[in-house]
Amino acid sequence: MEFDFSDRMKGLKANAIREIFKYLSDPQMISFAGGMPNKEALPVEILSELSEKLFKDKSIYGVLQYGSTEGYMPLRQSSVDFVKRMGIDGIDTDNTLIITGGQQGIDLTCKVFLNKGDCILVEDPTYIAVLHILKTYEAKAYGVKSNHDGIDTDDLEAKIKKYKPKFIYLVPTFGNPTGKNYPLSKRKKILELAVKYGTIILEDDSYSHLRFGGEYVQSIKSLDTTGNVIYNTSYSKIISPGIRCGVCVADKEIIAKMILCKQATDVHTSALSQALCDGFLRGNYLDGHLKKILPIYSSKKSLMREAIKKYMPTDFECTNPDGGLFIFGSFKEGTDTSDYFVRALQSKVAYVNGIDFYASGDVRNTLRLNFSNSTDEQIERGIKILGDIFKER
Ligand SMILES: Cc1ncc(COP(=O)(O)O)c(C=O)c1O
Q: Which of 176, 207, 273, 373 best tests ligand 1's pocket when mutated (most atoms within 8 Å of CB)?
């Protein structure tokens, strides 16, 4: 049977990271590929206590039933308090939608705003999955140049004028893949441009709580007085990615449209997961948990950078992020990291080729390394293996 798939399936491939996940079931594999929290950073005991309490409470019957699409009301309320940590104030629960992970917030934004052929601007490089999602809506992503401190606002303005984007997708705090943290002045400028040209910013804030250095910088959403910013955050990296919970904060009119789309997609985010997240936030476990996990991540990042210095070729330069889960590195031009990718997998080490994160640039000499998921011993051994492979260029 020859299947007559939709036009949007033409040329759509699995995103590179999801492809690599196939290899990760090999217990020998050292994975610097996905953005997975460390096993030690998953709050198993807290979640186990919260589950036990939840199942003993009468409210469990409500949790095990169908719920409302906009989200479990206690979690919407505790999420309003949660986003105050990022300076977002003056909102109520009608400005929030509980989403099935931050990823769904990106998908729903696309569903609500995009027609086939619409243009979107992203920082080049950007979060890989957003490029994949945009393809499923047959939209066009254009990359904006990136400087040492984030997106280049001159290039952004030029491209807003040229492409008239429906929205600008940004990860301003510890961006994936580069870990850059935009200064406040840049955040203000970006918002000013969005207001001036009447476009929307989709601010993806998956990592601001994973800060182990540098200064706190408030979110773009916290500066927004006009409703131009859709703010997406997630409980994946600070509680657990497997519970698939996040929150989207936006103008009430946008949230209402997103609810209509989410109804069609998954009715609602797992109520059990939402109740656990709510228990986690209300029980004030977050600060203690962050206190435990941030030193782990900070130490793993330093360990990986030391191993890079020791084992990688001298032309390999890499970032030193103050937060997030990734180190982004580049070789001198002329090295195509994808040429070494299969050899690395055969040697049981996985990384992600930088090219997969670019919307426009044909940049082949970069790669992304995750430092959170491996043991200290695996970091040392895995980087040594990569060093040996790249030294043979
Ligand atoms: C920038 C960014 N946005 C969104 C996500 C999606 O996360 P989740 O759907 O697990 O919340 C990720 C995950 O790695 C990410 O790095």
A: 176
